[in-house]
Amino acid sequence: MTVPEWVKPAIWGAIGGAIATIVIGFAWGGWVMGGTLERMEAASAEAAIVQALTPNCVAKAEQEPEQRALLKEEHSYKRDEVVIEAGWVDSVSEKYRSAVAEACASTVVEGMKAD
Question: What are the TM regions of this chain, as residue ranges (predicted)?
């Protein structure tokens, strides 16, 4: 059986095209592997939960002006501890409590600066 001359270049062209497609897809096309996708989904879900629970914490903070004053005086890296100690995030699951407290603290302090 004889193979036509054009078959070998066509096969190499197809292989090269496949490799180029893979490289372009992962580099610029936004393709990701399964593990990366799972991490992105988890981060997105956590961000949504934090965003949903933060307004409740801010509402509790608005009811306690003396605690807000303490929050503003505290160093920025310790503000989440003040929020947790004040009890503004008691209804939040332990898994998300620190993230919600941090978002709440920054929102409250930014609101105080705007006033």
Answer: 12-31
How far is Cα 36 from Cα 27, in angstroms, rounded to an integer? 14
Which tokens sit at 73?
A: 């005086």
pLDDT tens digits, 4-44:
889 999 999 999 999 999 999 999 998 999 999 999 999 99
Q: How far apart are CA 28 and CA 113, in angstroms?
A: 41
Q: How deeply is 17 buried, as exposed, middle or buried, from its count of CB atoms within 10 A (0-12, 13-18, 19+)? A: exposed
Q: Say if CB 84 and CB 106 are below 8 A apart.
A: no
Instruction: Give me the residue spans of the domains in the chain.
Output: 1-31, 41-114
Secondary structure (DSSP) of 36-72: HHHHHHHHHHHHHHHHHHHHHHHHHHHT-HHHHHHHH
**Mean pLDDT, all residues of the chain:** 91
Question: Which residue, chain included where needed, has tokens 């105080």?
Answer: 112
